[in-house]
Amino acid sequence: MEKTVRLTSSKLIIYIFFLSLILLLTILTALSIGSVTISFVDIIKSFFGSDTESLSSDIIFKIRLPRIILALAVGGGLSVAGAVFQAILMNPLAEPYILGISSGGTFGAVLAMVLGLSFLGVQAFAFIGALIVIGIVFLIGKRFGELEPNVMLLSGVMVGAFFSAIILLMINFLNESLRTAIFWLMGNLSLASGENVYYILGISILISFVLSINSQKYNILSLGDEQAAHLGLDTKVIKTVTYVSASILVGAIVSVSGIIGFVGLIIPHLCRLIFGIDNRIIIPASFFIGSSYLILTDTLARYIISPVEIPVGAVTAIIGAPIFIYLLRKRFNLIN
């Protein structure tokens, strides 16, 4: 059961501090684990300049760290997107994968690859694809001018499946060298490299910060649109800003990671169980815990049957699908 706890500024700072420590420990653990085990002492030496030309340093900076940074950006961004969709739609089952937004963004990214566009072109098409899907889902989900949350979820699943089928067809038009995209579509972080990683990290942190600033407005929206309007909140503006911002975030993420499902579903639920229902802590906590979660699951994916690598999207689906079914049954039982 979700709890209600009064959140003060000092409590918020303490929570963020401890979540940052957990994320740091997670990063150190992921840097250490792999086909070659690296001790914490060697990791510290590599970072502080006394062992910069060793094999350990090459493994850390050229292989593991870029991938960990990408997992941080992707896990945190998807979790924040899930948290704000759940807050805006007042539906605990809403998240980018279930709403079909991840599939739409991936469709745009693959289309850009087929057309031979640059990295920025892939990003732009991914964003447009995400916006198109959210527009379609919202149109289908409207009834008498109001959004029907359960219809939206079903619409998202159907639209997502439709775009996933188109993606599989488009892969046939890719060069042989790009057909490895089928592995990437299952959700994979092995494409982490160079400036692209830091670009995605910047987008993820920036948009997550913007959405966190609006967290108190999401608390007001939970009272209902009419009550929120009476309290002076322009509900249409805040919802539009949120939908567009979250779509940019998801589009940017799926253009480099493919479809990684259920992260945006599980993490906000976990945060509400731990911290209560106040979005002022739920949204930032979702970023930190989501980052830690995806770093750990990706480490598991690349290590569990090493040297063979499991797509991280498969791991998150194995964990997330049963939880989604449980939450869905719980929601329908409450309605009945």
Defining key terms:
single chain; 336 residues; mainly alpha; ABC transporter involved in vitamin B12 uptake, BtuC; two-stranded antiparallel ribbon; 74% helix
Topology summary:
Blueprint: H1 9-32, H2 40-47, H3 55-89, H4 101-114, H5 119-141, E1 142-143, E2 146-147, H6 149-171, H7 181-185, H8 194-213, H9 215-221, H10 225-230, H11 235-257, H12 263-275, H13 279-303, H14 312-335
Helix pairs in contact: 1-13, 3-8, 3-11, 3-12, 3-13, 4-5, 4-6, 4-11, 5-6, 5-11, 8-11, 8-13, 9-13, 12-13
Radius of gyration, taken over Cα atoms and rounded to an integer in Å: 20 Å
Count of individual helical segments:
14
Strand content: under 5%
- Main sheet attributes: strand count, strand direction, barrel closure: 2 strands, antiparallel
The structural class is mainly alpha
Name the average pLDDT.
87
CATH architecture: Orthogonal Bundle
**Strand line-up in the sheet with most strands:** 1-2
Quaternary state of this entry equals single chain
Strand tally: 2
Low-confidence region ranges: none
CATH homology superfamily name: ABC transporter involved in vitamin B12 uptake, BtuC
Q: How many structural units, i.e. domains? A: 1
Query: What fraction, in percent, of the residue positions are helical?
Result: over 70%
What order do the SSEs take from the amino end to the carboxyl end, as H and E?
HHHHHEEHHHHHHHHH
Brief summary:
The protein is mainly α and 336 residues long.
